[in-house]
Amino acid sequence: MASLSPEQLASIEQAAHWYSRLNDEDVTSAEREAWQRWLHAAPLHAWAWERAEQLMQQWRQLPGPMASHTLAQARQARTHNRRSVLKGLTLLIGAGSLSVGGYQQVVNGPWFADFRSAIGERLPVSLADGSQLLLNTDSAVDVRYDGMHCAITLRQGEIMVSPAPGVQLSVQTRHGLISTAASRFTVRDAGETTRVMTLERQVRISPAQGAAEEVGQGMSCLFDERGVRVTRALDYAASAWTRGLLIANDQPLGEFLEQLGRYNRGWLRCDPAVAALRISGTFELDNFEQILRALASSLPVRIEQRTRFWITVSPA
């Protein structure tokens, strides 16, 4: 979907929300009326809705074994319901028709993971061996056991891991493996790199094509397939999400809003004219509207909110 504009992506996300909601048994007449208002509010909404309907029609026409496998995985996913599966399929509408490749993209993507958090959600998970996970916004993991070894695969996003006593635990990312017997740490898929922050004890980083390295307590590192690229002292503001907080220390507003946008279902845009303004403070992630009000009261900016999915921070 890289060829789509941010406006198109936001409309696709909204169409996915409405499609899944309207297909729930408990949908209300008020919600149907709200959907109609949304549908006619902008041409892009009608465009996204049409493509969502086209995709779902294609999905119903998948060959029998593929469709059956998709439905079976949907039923088995521990944190999924029909709404999340519909949304995952609809997000493919920007990539064209639902071919075999599109089907594989859905199955191997976050929508059919063992555990998945929604945008804006931080999901605590207690594993069978007593280990604890905390999934940050829009994250997905698979979990497998081999004796006393717990193998976690990070499909998407960011997690905090707290192994149970005596459990050997590893986290596989696209760039390599993080392993430990006792450390509490966070792992984030940052695209071209994986970021690891060690909150307690130490972990072993084994890049896919590079030499393994130990990372001690209170350290943060970035690594890719070839090796550990950066190691520095831990910035505890970066792990504040584990406590439900977003911390800014004299940070450019544009960077702050980019981080905040990870917790917002929709498009949060920063006007370039105010992107360089500096902001400091501690903000509660569970109160998105309060954060926006705090920005408007402390900086010379105004919040333009066309819908709850489309917000722009502009000069006052």
Give a written overview of the molecule.
- The structure is a single chain.
- 31% of the residues lie in helices and 34% in strands.
- The strands form four sheets. The protein has a seven-stranded mixed β-sheet, with no helix packed on it. Strands 2-3-6-9-10-13-14 form a seven-stranded antiparallel β-sheet, with no helix packed on it. Strands 16-19-18 form a three-stranded mixed β-sheet, with helices on both faces.
- Helix 1 (6-22) packs across helix 3 (43-60) and helix 1 runs antiparallel to helix 5.
- It is an alpha+beta fold and 316 residues long.
- The protein has eight helices and 19 strands.
- Mean pLDDT is 82; it is low at 65-83 and 94-100.
- The protein has three domains: 6-112, no CATH class; 123-233, Jelly Rolls, CATH 2.60.120.1440; 244-315, Phage tail protein beta-alpha-beta fold.
- The protein starts with 5 loop residues before the first helix and ends with a strand.
